[in-house]
């Protein structure tokens, strides 16, 4: 029996199983107490799970194509947070992110991190279907399925566990023998892992639907999406969507979710405008011939083939900007701004078009006006800071970036821009320190340490600054020692 793992999930499980420091018993004073509830707590605590997830997220930035578009990232985080607020653990810190990949997939990372592929966002027929997938993955996190799987694995025999780990590591490294090694492991262990995963899927469906309904979405969206995946399964016998490999869809599973959905009041909630605009932007930025993509948008508008005319026109304008058809882009954006002058995504696109045309003064005026009205908008701050850097407004960019980082301290791109701004105004200590955080969050801790060592040279005789640098280097070295495999 062959166990199928998402490539990232293979890495997660391997890392989790190989970190003995995470296996800390529950204690009270000097007495070790048995965990009478969730036994996974004795294997890895929520705090340790979060640390593990943060480390895996940093490492994954070196191998996964993160969608760094600020507007797309902000939308998926906002939608995800809406769902989390209606879960059974609304206080837990979640981070939703998008992977630029046309395949249909989504996955949960320990500690509250949930990834979704651009292919899945485009495959969903409506926003409720997308929300149903995120709700399902949210349930995996709130129910601690990955730690519970680790706890279950701890009770397997050592040879069997060693075989599983070996296969996982080989597969994670991209070796063809990895999955074969997993398949050759004890059939009994394999069957138990399969069954355990199925029970998690059932629980995630049940709790995810509750989250979906409580968040104001139609619960019927979950079985509808399952049916769509099942149809893809029938049409693609030799090339299954990755989502189906990690989330098997069966007729009984669809029936169960349909029966559960009938227990809730039907909600016909229309898609948000943001959902339609994000989908249009993903299409406009997709791999392929940019001119053909722009032509596709133009033909859709001419033939009325769209669900939201403004979103389709927005996608067309993004595609035009990508192909540097700036005059036409400016015309299309002007139509959008005239209809909705307060929509931030339109003002950003308007400013970016003027930046591309070299009209820097006009672009900065658009950004300044929009930022004065909505200073808390994260995508706007990102684009505005980038424009300020390109036009030599380094001090203004630095101040804006510091404010933005207070809201989004996990964003490596903001740190990279801050390093540039600080370096250009001559504050070398701040520049190297910011660059260190950029490298750290990007999964390159050794480069982060090098930058911190350079920062120390510009700290002067300040005991406070030198102590801070030494403490940060020590913390990163400790993480390197903790997570490196022997």
Automatic annotation (TrEMBL):
Record flagged with keyword Transport: no
Annotated organism of origin: Sulfuricaulis limicola
Organismal lineage: Bacteria, Pseudomonadati, Pseudomonadota, Gammaproteobacteria, Acidiferrobacterales
Coiled coil: none
Family: Belongs to the peptidase M48 family. BepA subfamily.
Zinc in keyword set: yes
Protein name (database record): Putative beta-barrel assembly-enhancing protease
GO molecular function terms listed in the Swiss-Prot or TrEMBL record: metalloendopeptidase activity; zinc ion binding
Predominant cellular place of this UniProt entry's protein: periplasm
Its job: Functions as both a chaperone and a metalloprotease. Maintains the integrity of the outer membrane by promoting either the assembly or the elimination of outer membrane proteins, depending on their folding state.
Pfam families, per database record: Peptidase_M48 (PF01435), TPR_19 (PF14559)
Cofactor note as given: Binds 1 zinc ion per subunit.
Cofactor(s) essential for the protein: Zn(2+)
């Amino acid at each position: 029996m062959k166990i199928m793992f998402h490539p990232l999930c293979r890495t997660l499980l391997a890392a989790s199983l190989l970190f003995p420091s995470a296996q800390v018993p529950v204690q009270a004073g000097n007495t070790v107490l048995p965990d009478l509830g969730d036994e996974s707590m004795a294997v890895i605590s929520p705090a340790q799970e979060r640390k593990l997830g943060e480390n895996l997220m940093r490492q994954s930035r070196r191998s996964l194509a993160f969608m760094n578009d600020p507007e797309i990232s902000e939308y998926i985080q906002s939608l995800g947070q809406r769902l989390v607020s209606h879960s059974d653990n609304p206080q837990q810190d979640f981070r939703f992110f998008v992977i630029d990949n046309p395949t249909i997939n989504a996955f949960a990372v320990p500690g509250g991190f949930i990834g979704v592929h651009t292919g899945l966002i485009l495959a969903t027929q409506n926003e409720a279907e997308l929300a149903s997938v995120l709700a399902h993955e949210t349930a995996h996190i709130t129910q601690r399925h990955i730690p519970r799987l680790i706890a279950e694995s701890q009770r397997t025999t050592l040879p069997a566990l060693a075989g599983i780990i070996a296969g996982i590591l080989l597969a994670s490294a991209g070796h063809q023998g990895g999955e074969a090694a997993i398949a050759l492991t004890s059939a009994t262990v394999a069957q138990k892992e399969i069954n355990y995963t199925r029970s998690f899927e059932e629980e995630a469906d049940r709790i995810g639907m509750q989250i979906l309904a409580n968040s104001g979405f139609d619960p019927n969206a979950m079985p509808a999406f399952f049916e769509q995946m099942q149809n893809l399964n029938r049409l693609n016998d030799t090339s299954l969507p990755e989502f189906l490999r990690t989330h098997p869809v069966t007729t009984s599973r669809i029936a169960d979710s349909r029966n559960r959905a009938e227990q809730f009041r039907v909600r016909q909630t229309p898609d948000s405008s943001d959902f339609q605009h994000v989908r249009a932007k993903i299409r406009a930025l997709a791999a392929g011939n940019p001119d053909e993509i722009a032509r596709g948008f133009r033909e859709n508008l001419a033939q009325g083939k769209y669900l939201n005319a403004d979103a389709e026109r927005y996608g067309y304008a993004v595609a035009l900007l990508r192909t540097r058809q700036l005059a036409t882009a400016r015309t299309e954006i002007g139509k959008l701004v005239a209809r909705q002058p307060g929509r931030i995504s339109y003002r950003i696109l308007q400013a970016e078009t003027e930046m591309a045309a070299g009209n820097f003064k006009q672009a900065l005026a658009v950004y300044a006006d929009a930022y004065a009205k909505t200073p808390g908008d994260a995508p706007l701050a990102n684009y505005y800071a980038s424009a300020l850097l390109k036009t030599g407004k380094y001090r203004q960019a630095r101040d804006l970036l510091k404010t933005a980082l207070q809201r989004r301290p996990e964003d490596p791109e903001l740190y990279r821009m801050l390093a540039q701004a600080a370096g250009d105004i001559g504050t070398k200590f701040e520049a190297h320190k910011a660059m260190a955080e950029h490298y750290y969050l990007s999964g390159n801790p050794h480069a982060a340490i090098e930058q911190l060592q350079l920062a120390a040279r510009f700290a002067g005789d300040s005991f406070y600054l030198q102590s801070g640098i030494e403490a940060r280097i020590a913390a990163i070295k400790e993480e390197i020692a903790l997570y490196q495999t022997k």
